[in-house]
């Protein structure tokens, strides 16, 4: 089974968030990268862009598929992991560490509360099969 850290929150579209004091970090789950296969290209927003919960904010291209990324929360992009442009394979190697994608200043704290915890995300993956 995929690695599902207990301290993160999860979206139905397989993005994770790690809340911090003034921002949240967003990435794709271990399950998502396993399904995608070898990631060859990542498209991310720019610092200063506004992203809206449920709306597309980027994309991942792998050897198997092209997949849009959907924002788990609404807010302003404060940081982008530019190293993914040159090394998109970091999403496969370390999806919860060096493979993070963006950091945003969330507009609504309640967006975070609406996301799944690790147990609910495990059930979500099981129900997809």
Can you walk through the features of this model?
By secondary structure, the chain is an alpha+beta fold. It has one domain (9-108): RNA polymerase II/Efflux pump adaptor protein, barrel-sandwich hybrid domain (OB fold (Dihydrolipoamide Acetyltransferase, E2P)). It is 24% helix and 33% strand. The chain has five helices and nine strands, in the order βββαβββββααβαα. It has helices spanning 30-36, 83-86, 90-93, 109-113, 118-128, and strands at 9-10, 15-19, 24-28, 39-43, 50-51, 56-62, 66-70, 75-80, 102-106. The strands form two sheets. It has a six-stranded antiparallel beta sheet with strand order 1-2-3-9-8-5. Strands 4-6-7 form a three-stranded antiparallel beta sheet.
User: Can you identify the CATH class?
Assistant: Mainly Beta
Work out the count of structural domains: 1
Shape: globular
State which percent range the strand residues make up: 25-35%
According to CATH, the homologous superfamily is: RNA polymerase II/Efflux pump adaptor protein, barrel-sandwich hybrid domain
Q: How much is the radius of gyration in Å?
A: 13 Å
Structural class: alpha+beta
CATH topology: the name is OB fold (Dihydrolipoamide Acetyltransferase, E2P)
Terminal-residue CA separation:
12 Å
- Total number of helices: 5
Mean pLDDT equals: 94
- What is the share of helical residues? 10-25%
For the largest beta-sheet, the strand count, sense and barrel status come to: 6 strands, antiparallel
The CATH architecture would be Beta Barrel
């Amino acid at each position: 089974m995929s690695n599902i850290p207990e301290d993160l929150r999860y979206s139905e579209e397989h993005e994770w968030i790690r809340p911090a004091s003034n921002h949240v970090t967003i990435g794709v789950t271990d399950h998502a990268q396993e399904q995608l296969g070898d990631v060859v290209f990542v498209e991310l927003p720019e610092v200063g862009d506004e992203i809206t919960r449920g709306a597309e904010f980027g994309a991942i291209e792998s050897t198997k598929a092209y997949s849009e990324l959907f924002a788990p929360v609404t807010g302003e992009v404060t940081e982008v992991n530019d190293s993914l442009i040159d090394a998109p394979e970091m999403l496969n190697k370390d999806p919860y560490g060096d493979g993070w994608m963006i950091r945003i200043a969330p507009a609504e704290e309640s967006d975070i509360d609406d996301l799944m915890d690790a147990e609910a995300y495990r059930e979500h993956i099981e129900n997809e099969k």
